[in-house]
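On clarity, I found the account of how folds are encoded harder to follow than it need be. Since the whole study asks how a given chain folds, the encoding of that fold should be made plain. For illustration, here is how one protein appears when written out as sequence plus structure tokens:
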Amino acid sequence: MKKIFLPILIILGFFLSSFIYAQIATPDPIILIPGLGASWNSDVMWNNISVNTTWGFTDGVKNYDVLIDNLVAKGYVLNETLFIAHYDWRQSNINSATNYLIPVIDQALQNSETGKVDIIAHSMGGLVARAYIQDIDYRNDVDQLFLLGTPNA
């Protein structure tokens, strides 16, 4: 009886722990920070109007579509659990982190059960993320940072 009971208990424990984990574990919100030139806002770029106007990807930039589509297919919801941190790439990385990234982190944290976010940053977006973590009063609110093609050296 003991020989049969132990494997059943192990299997049952595995399935129960997986079920419980699946019920309570919610992934951290993801913030995508695009690279140099991928963010665009005509009001800011041409007229030097406030940073609080609408940003988007530069016309013709499709590099991020597959990544965003895959994250949405995995259950992430744009502007709820998946955020894009567009920024004025003409500014310093510290200014971009302060004026653009931190407000997006604050927005994402409203939907974070852990009080943390994950960041996927491409190219100069990685430098913006690093500026936040290394050069500004970092709040320990980034769980994972993925740098793709970031010129770190």
